[in-house]
C-alpha cells in the first residue's frame, strides 16, 4: 500500500494556511482511494522528530510551508538539515517527494526560486519528485468566508487525487492552482493607484486599531541612535 | 562604511569560520567599520508568523530575544553582509532564523515595486546587502545560483539590493578586492 505523510512546515502549526491547504490535498488523495495519511507538524518537537523518522519509512511525503522572506522558514531548513544523513541512502530508499509553497503575495513569481531549490533537493535525496504546488494570496484564506475558497479547495483535492492515481501532480492543474504568475501591466497600474485607497490596507488597519497600535503603525524604533 | 556581518556558521572551528574572520579583518584594514554578530551565540526564538511586529508592537518583535540586536545592527549599517556555509544546498537554518526575524524592519502595507506587490518601507534608509557563501560540502554552482537568487529577492523585500555575492573558493584578499570594486 502506498503510504502518504503530510508534513506541515508552518511555524504556526495546526492553525496555519499551509495546513488548511494540505488537508484538501489529503482529502483528494483519500477520495482517489489512498489510505489515510499521517499528519505531522514540524512546529512541535515531537512532530519534528517523528518527521525525521517518517522520512525513512513513507512511500510518499508532501512537505508544505509558507514563504518566509523569499525562501523556506528556518524551521523547514532545520528539518532539511536533519535529513542530511539520508543523502547517502541507497537508490530508491527515500520516499517520493512533493511540496506545497504558499505565500501572502498575490503572484506566484515570488515562490519560484524556492520551487527550484525544492526540486533540486528531491534530486539530492535521490527521491522521485512529484511536483510543487505553488499558490499566492495565502493569507486571504483567513480573511474571507470559507465559501470563497471553494474553487481552490476543489483544485487541491484534484491534485491529491492525481498524486494517488498517477503518482505525481498534473502540470496543468499545478498551473491553474498557482493563479496569476505576474500581474499584467494594466492590473499593476491600477494596483499602483489602489494601494493609496483605504480598502487595500483595510485588514491591517483593522487589527492595528483593535490592538491600540494604529497611532504607532509607522514606528521606526531602531533608526538613528538605535535607542528605542 | 559601516559593515554589519551576520555570521550563520554554527561551527566555531570550521574552515569557513576562519575564512570569515580573515575576510572581516581585511575589510577593517581597508578602512571599514566592521562588526560581526555570531548568530550561534545569540538567543533567537525564531519567527512564528504571529505578525505582532506589524500589528501589536509596530517595528519590534513581540518575543524577548536577541533579534532586536540584529534589527538595530542591520538598520544602522551601510552594508549588511550575510555569511554562511551551504548545507543541503542552501545557507544555514541559523542564518534563516535571523532573516525571518527581520520582518519588523518593513511595514505591512502593500506597494507596487519592480512589477510585483511588496511591502512598504518602515525606515527611510536600508543597508545594501552582500552575500558570502562557503565553498565545500556537497554544494555545486547551481546551488550557489539558486541560493543567491533567493537572497536577491529577500534583499528587494528588505527595500534594498544585493550588491555583492561571493564564494569562499578564492583567497580572502581576492574576495576583499572584489568587494572594494563593487560594494
Name some characteristics of this structure.
heterodimer; A: alpha/beta; Rossmann fold; 2 domains; 42% helix; B: alpha/beta; five-stranded parallel sheet; 6 helices
Give your account of this protein's structure.
The complex is a heterodimer of chains A (228) and B (183). With 228 residues, chain A is an alpha/beta fold. Chain A folds into 2 domains: 4-178, Flavodoxin domain (Rossmann fold), CATH 3.40.50; 185-216, no CATH class. Chain A has helices spanning 17-31, 45-55, 74-82, 112-124, 140-143, 150-166, 171-178, 185-194, 202-210; strands at 4-8, 38-41, 60-66, 96-102, 129-135. In chain A, strands 2-1-3-4-5 form a 5-stranded parallel β-sheet, sandwiched between helices. In chain A, helix 1 crosses helix 6 (150-166) and helix 6 runs antiparallel to helix 7 (171-178). The longest helix of chain A is centred in the C-terminal third of the chain and has 17 residues, at 150-166. The termini of chain A are far apart. By secondary structure, chain B is an alpha/beta fold. Chain B has one domain (2-182): Flavodoxin domain (Rossmann fold). Chain B contains 6 helices and 9 strands. Chain B has helices at 15-29, 52-55, 67-75, 93-100, 141-157, 172-182, and strands at residues 2-7, 33-38, 79-84, 86-87, 90-91, 106-113, 116-121, 128-133, 162-167. A 5-stranded parallel β-sheet of chain B has the order 2-1-3-8-9, with helices on both faces. In chain B, strands 4-5 form a two-stranded antiparallel ribbon. A two-stranded antiparallel sheet of chain B has the order 6-7. In chain B, 50% of the residues are buried. At the A-B interface, helix 3, helix 4, helix 8 and helix 9 of A face helix 3, helix 4, strand 6, strand 7 and helix 5 of B.
| CATH-level-4 superfamily name of the largest domain in chain A | Flavodoxin domain
Shape of chain A: globular
Radius of gyration of chain A, rounded?
19 Å
Q: So, CATH architecture of the largest domain in chain A? A: 3-Layer(aba) Sandwich
Structural class of the secondary elements of chain A?
alpha/beta
CATH topology descriptor of the largest domain in chain A: Rossmann fold
Proportion of helical residues of chain B:
25-40%
Number of strands of chain A: 5
CATH topology descriptor of chain B: Rossmann fold
- Low-pLDDT runs of chain A: none
- Report mean pLDDT of chain A, rounded to a whole number: 91
Q: Write the H/E string of chain B, N to C.
A: EHEHHEEEHEEEHEH
* Order of strands across the main sheet of chain A: 2-1-3-4-5
Strand content of chain B: 25-35%
Percent of residues in beta strands of chain A? 5-15%
In oligomeric terms, what are we looking at? heterodimer
Q: Which of globular, elongated, flat, extended, rod-shaped describes the shape of chain B? A: globular
Radius of gyration of CA atoms of chain B, rounded to a whole number: 16 Å
Helix content of chain A: 40-55%
